[in-house]
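Aim 2 progress update. The chain analyzed this quarter is reproduced below.
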Amino acid sequence: MFPVFSDGFFSVDPTHGFLPIAEPLAQLPESFTSLQKLIDQMPIVKDNGSPGLLAVEGAFEKAVMNLPNYVDLVKSEQDPFVLAALFRAYGFVTSAYTLAPSHHSFLKTGKYGKAHGALPSNVAQPFAAVAEKLEVYPWIDYHYAYSLGNYQKIDKSKGFEWTNLAMAAKFSGMDDERGFIMLHVDINQYSPDMIGAVHGILAAIDDQESLTKPIDLLAIAMNKMNDRRKLMWEASRWKHYNDFRVFIMGVKGNDDLFPNGLLYEGVWDEPKAYRGQTGAQDNIIPTADIVSGVIHYYPQNQLTSYLMDLRQYRPMCIQNFFKELANQMSQKPLAKRLIAADNQLGMQALMSVYEEIYLFRNGHWQFVQKYIMQNTAYPKATGGTPITSWIPNQIKAVLSAMRDLSSAMRTTPNFSMEQWQEEYDRKVKLLNKQLEIVAVEAFDPEAVFKLNLELGYQDF
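Predicted structure tokens:
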């Protein structure tokens, strides 16, 4: 039986998937009132519609200097939900404080300016303390801080649709930020089905029905996730991404913003550099890659090294889940099991999983083309990775997995190899043509995006 991995806030199992085991705290306990007040006053647009501290150059930094140092209270805290909320609060304060100059520079010049290179001790010390308790890096992350640990249901009787989710903490305070990050929570509402399917694959014997059924369930879960993912175009307008994007940039890989790293005053004598918050810290595609075997097709290059580096920017329970999953799947590789049994139905189901991985990644690549490449000439993603080659690197991996699996497949009443080959060739052509365009220094981002429509893979 596959083990459950939990830290008291997350529990990776078929009931909770990758979402917290209960709704995150909306507010900090009263003992942290000043910190909560700072979070409430921080957004560019506050909940009541008036300008917040980040709307006025220098105002937020000044307010931070008056924040009490809660390091002793943080060190004594044991409740995992309070610790997650504290990490969220200090993650937001840290990013807002350090990157406020970059934001205001962008408003004036259209270019990100240099960030503050030192974090004052009244923030640095408690942030480092709560990060140590959670065993994560002291920088805003996807799990505890910006996304999965940051949602609040507007109507508690309804589900995880992004329109029913609000953010407990925010930078811009505008609807486009809410839609952008809460849609990630929305997508993860199907992660329990994904984990259930993974458990089923691991438990199945190698007869056709037993093994095919959980692979089918994995493909169905991912199809639902892809349907929700496509709503990004509606949830968050791409022209407004820069209203909040700079605040989730990291130190590592962004030397133009942090030329000397970031000094955590009163904690370490030497500056540190951590990667920024990014959707690449989500767990859906890494899980699918490990289970399906796509991970074995990752190119051996620097881009893959970036990907594996980001595995460390997750809660330890998620990291341990990945390690154990990879260990068990390496003992019983899924494609090998299917091919050895000549399980054509199972191979078709696995090809459907590959298709959903491709659509997820190619859709994400289209987000990059519109939300980033057409909004700014800055060449780095929030995680500090190069924007024009990062996702194509992983698209190549799933295309290679598809190609190898297809060599063992035959046309059946429910599957046409000829039709599959035509669609595969279009996928390869699309990526190759896009990479030809971005290889030129002064390329047209719109030309990259238009190819999706021309070759039949536009995301909406």
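Strands lie at 5-6, 11-12, 118-119, 151-153, 165-167, 263-264. The two ends are 40 Å apart (CA to CA). These observations will guide the mutagenesis experiments scheduled for the next reporting period.
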